[in-house]
Write a structure and sequence with these properties.
About 30% of the residues lie in helices and about 15% in strands. By secondary structure, the protein is α+β, with helices and mostly antiparallel strands. The strands form 2 sheets. It has a 7-stranded mixed sheet, with helices on one face. The longest helix is centred in the first third of the chain and has 21 residues, at about 1-20.
């Protein structure tokens, strides 16, 4: 009887591992991949793509929104990041991936209001139809993808190591990665867990 029970436990464990393995999300891009370009409407009505930035040395693509508390906590830091690095060839490109039917506060009109209120110096694009964020594999707001000039992904994850308190940040993942690229090196940290709200989409 004991042997039967042990075999049953082993079988359940094996099945569990198989299910876990088959449920791994393989969508999106990874470090070392070439990031897909996009053509999305900016808050000024113009269509923006990665190719819109002709002299870019890299791109700080961040999936963010108006309504997530974590996204709001990072707004000022994203403004400062763009102000510091856009002139050096690394612009912030913000993309709102949320479905406004699920989250009305993330509608295009609300995006324009938020950008005006916060004086966003960077492009704030609407992922209409929610086609771009799955191509990247973004799951949170905010979720950052640092690309080099060839659109190769060099870093994925969080901006820094303290979402709730900017003054307590001790590691700036994105800035450290940019410094490495500018020095002709690969970033030491290429992946961290994005901390934020889940992207809002209609349930199928």
């Amino acid at each position: 009887m004991k042997k039967v029970i042990n075999l049953s436990v082993l079988l359940i464990a094996v099945i569990g591992l198989f299910v876990a393995a088959t449920n791994i999300d393989t969508n999106g891009i990874e470090v070392g991949d070439t990031a897909p370009d996009f053509a999305l409407k900016n808050i000024d009505g113009k269509t923006i793509s990665l190719d819109s930035y002709k002299d870019a040395k890299g791109y700080i693509v961040v999936f963010t929104c108006n309504t997530c508390p974590y996204a709001v906590m990072y707004e000022q830091r994203l403004i400062e990041l763009h102000d510091k690095y856009a002139a050096k060839g690394y612009p912030v490109i913000a993309i709102n991936p949320n479905d406004p039917e699920v989250k009305p506060g993330d509608s295009f009109d609300k995006m324009k209001e938020r950008a005006a209120d916060k004086k966003f110096p960077f492009a704030y694009l609407f992922d209409d139809g929610q086609k771009v964020y799955p191509a990247y594999g973004a799951t949170r707001t905010p979720h950052i993808y640092l690309l080099d000039a060839k659109k190769t992904v060099q870093y994925i994850g969080a901006l820094d190591n303290n979402a709730q308190d900017a003054s307590a940040v001790t590691t700036k993942f994105v800035e450290d990665a940019i410094a490495a690229l500018d020095a002709g090196k690969k970033p030491e940290t290429t992946f961290t867990k994005a901390i934020g709200c889940s992207i809002k989409t209609k349930k199928s």
